[in-house]
Amino acid sequence: MNPANPSPVSAVRPAVDAALAEFMEHRRKLMAEIGPELVPVMDALDHMLAGGKRLRPAFCYWGWRGAGGAEIPEIGTAAAALEFLQACALIHDDVIDNSDTRRGRPATHRRLAALHERSGWDGDPAAFGRGAAVLIGDLCLAWCEEMYSASGLGEAALRAGRGPFDMMRTEVMAGQYLDMIEQERGGETVEAALRVMHYKSAKYTVERPLHLGAALAGRHDELAPVFTAYGVPLGVAFQLRDDVLGVFGDPAQTGKPAGDDLREGKRTLVVAETLSRARSGDADRFRTLLGDPALSAESVDWMRALITASGGLAACEQRIDDYTARASAALDTDAIAPEARAALADLIVAATARER
Amino acid sequence: MNPANPSPVSAVRPAVDAALAEFMEHRRKLMAEIGPELVPVMDALDHMLAGGKRLRPAFCYWGWRGAGGAEIPEIGTAAAALEFLQACALIHDDVIDNSDTRRGRPATHRRLAALHERSGWDGDPAAFGRGAAVLIGDLCLAWCEEMYSASGLGEAALRAGRGPFDMMRTEVMAGQYLDMIEQERGGETVEAALRVMHYKSAKYTVERPLHLGAALAGRHDELAPVFTAYGVPLGVAFQLRDDVLGVFGDPAQTGKPAGDDLREGKRTLVVAETLSRARSGDADRFRTLLGDPALSAESVDWMRALITASGGLAACEQRIDDYTARASAALDTDAIAPEARAALADLIVAATARER
User: How confident is the model at residue A3, as a pLDDT?
Assistant: First the structure.
């Protein structure tokens, strides 16, 4: 991003943070009245919400502004609701993948397992942590909708927004399920990886938040095609960058151990592009190593080298460039208000930057 | 229930079933478009939804009718949405408790684990089943809200209903979390068991659905106290009956192995009432056996005998009678429309019957 420009995310971050803080303060009181045991649940949630990049709220906000919506606090609240959906997705994803960390800190189920250990309770701390995290994710999903409905936007706007809001929730869960299936059945085609990215990332992270913003501003039908043309390729590029960082990223920046995606056996496009290019002996060894929880640093290095040498990495970088260019080209329209066009152009850079 | 009367649940069941079928048909198409792999997800959900007793929709419906609401299909749809919340709660509860069965059939996570086995995929079928069930529960929670909002009731009614609808979702998850905590820390006081029942059962199953119905009919503030006075004691009695059946019930009727609650170590009021009365040696042995997954039939028999001999069972039956009487007394008011009063009186019998 051009450091001379204010970040397109920072334009909405204060409103989003304030809306989340106010909502959480009210829920904290409510939960404490039900029982003091619920305080650690709220602490875990505060921690999870604080770490968000506010990317989905930013796309929702700029979808609204791009459709001519005014700069009013209510859109910040409606957009902030998406952070609860994302919190649910991440908390449950970490349970499903049995990931120990999230953004360099213990995952929610690990935090709750640690509470169990500290408290000296009976039973299995890990099982308690997982169960608690399932319930905390459920709370997030319920509160996402509660915050959306109580955003203060008019009934007609909220009703119009429900189309993309509903699709977004269904698609992200369907995409997560397809992702699990591909992982289990060892899917390794480019098509399979792209389908998962389409639902789990492209539509969920970029397209639907933009649609939601446009719908709330009363211009969904008019702007949906433009935002799809921009959002779907950008969302794929965003996920591809994430996948590349998941293999090559600096642990200090990604918050995950080096090569963690390889250890978890994620069936990303990076894997598909590598396996489709590598010689069969190398591909076989790669397959054997992929998903080995005890993967050594040497093996991670060997896998990285193959991803690079096979041309898999270059293919992914080329795709990022291509998808990014398609997203940029889609902004070449008068249908989107000028200030929003500039912000959406900056968001392309922010979402696909090599450093996070 | 007096067999001469039509069941107060059957009054709403056809509308609820029809609304669920229509909603699911639409979702089935949507999911199949995303990917044919999602068909088994919908099958699992159909199965889960088919087994519901429609108790929460019935209370919502009679809350509406009690507040003077007309017999229109839209209330059936809004009430049916609660079956999705219940499906989420049960699917996630079975994951959390690692329960193999639900209503005598494999739990959702076991169904998905079986799919994994049949498909011959890599990885751990049990882990896949749990992960898939987390996502399927999430879908249910999102669809609960989607169905509510799309019920066809007016915006003002839906807005008024959001208060109880929101509280209901927060309270059931908070109650489930407290339940987990009590189980882990070996809680055995009557007060602790009653607090869990208050949120997880009394408010969730009876009081809030009634409040929701009254709110949708525009009479929440007027009727909420009456429905609380009826709903909270009835909800506790309902859960107590469930807890007694969980220890003494016929597996053919409960759909769970005999003494399953004892094997799972549930910290129910039955346990609390027994431990507070048993001699210390017996209580110690009871504590040791409680929650042993390999509990033998002989040990189950011994525990049942202690629950009876200690007076724990009689105390629970006495509480069921007392709470039921309080619920009945609360109906002695002209605030509730006559037909609904009769139905709510029948629902007391239906919800606390010794046979299910």
Answer: 43
